[in-house]
Design goal:
Elements lengths: L3 E7 L2 E7 L9 H15 L6 E6 L4 E3 L7 H4 L3 H19 L5 E5 L2 E3 L1 H7 L3 E5 L3 E3 L11 H22 L2 E3 H7 L4 E3 L4 H14 L2 H14 L7 H6 L7 H11 L10
Parallel strand pairs: 2-3, 3-5, 4-6, 5-7, 6-8, 7-10
Antiparallel strand pairs: 1-2, 8-9
Helix pairs in contact: 1-3, 4-5
Length: about 260
């Protein structure tokens, strides 16, 4: 189906694809909705350990929303609020996903594509990848839920630079700004994204989920409660902890079961 979100699974790693290569994976409202539904379902799967998010092909992660839909689905404020609701529900699903998310980025990653990549925990891109959010040229504002993940990565000053200038910039500048985690040769992006996911999957899955939860909580200005402090020691009662230190002492590779 043209304009789909597809998902494949290889062991404990899932790959979610923005699958509209004939349009460089430009996002439709339907794709936003299906992406959110897919991530919610994956988040609930305890047997999973990592999710890779990518665009189909090697020309683009995504150039953002399909402008062709605007005339019928986003032409006024009322429509935009409804359309934005679909985007923001997906952003929330990605932000709250329990499993680590790795963005595998080839080519163009701008606008809504950049928003999706910013919602991932790690971002691996190629040397010729391009980034930006030139929405000022469309007279569009990036709403709070869309801007928040970018601003968390780069800070408000750099986020404003990206939005006010509207430049599309290269991978090395994206790395310097903190938008991406790692830049590799274009031909190695898939290999490095997979290797990254495998390194994550080798670790204790409960620990990965706790670390994601704690990192999100630290972005909240409220004081950490006594109960929250206590949760950081729950790992000591897990089977994975017992397996981890037993394997270390025995000089063998641990086999974690997420319990």
């Amino acid at each position: 189906m043209s304009g789909a979100i597809t998902m494949t699974r290889d062991g404990d790693i899932a790959t979610v694809v923005l699958d509209r290569p004939e349009k460089l994976n430009a996002l439709t409202r339907s794709m936003w909705e299906h992406l959110g539904e897919t991530v919610l379902a994956l988040s609930a799967d305890d047997s999973l350990r990592c999710v890779i998010v990518r665009g189909a092909g090697e020309k683009a992660f995504s150039p953002g929303n399909d402008i062709g839909e605007f005339a019928t689905m986003r032409s006024n404020k009322a429509q935009a609020i409804e359309y934005g609701g679909a985007m923001h529900r997906t952003a929330r699903a990605m932000a709250e996903c329990r499993h680590p998310l790795v963005a595998h980025i080839h080519g163009i990653c701008v606008g809504g594509g950049l928003e999706i990549a910013a919602l991932c925990d790690l971002r691996i891109c190629g040397e010729t990848s391009r980034f930006g959010a030139p929405i000022k040229n469309l007279g569009l504002v990036m709403a709070y839920p869309e801007l928040a993940p970018i601003a968390r990565l780069v800070g408000p000053a750099v986020a404003l630079e990206i939005l006010l200038e509207g430049r599309v910039f290269d991978a090395q500048e994206a790395l310097a700004k903190g938008l991406v985690t790692r830049v590799v040769a274009d031909g190695l992006v898939a290999q490095e994204a997979r290797a990254t996911a495998e390194r994550i999957a080798e670790g204790a899955p409960l620990v990965a989920r706790w670390h994601k939860k704690f990192a999100r909580r630290l972005a909240d200005p409220r004081p950490i409660t006594a109960e929250e402090h206590d949760e950081a020691f729950d790992c000591f009662d897990s089977e994975d902890f017992r397996e981890g230190y037993a394997a270390f002492l025995a000089k063998r590779k641990p086999v974690f079961r997420g319990k």
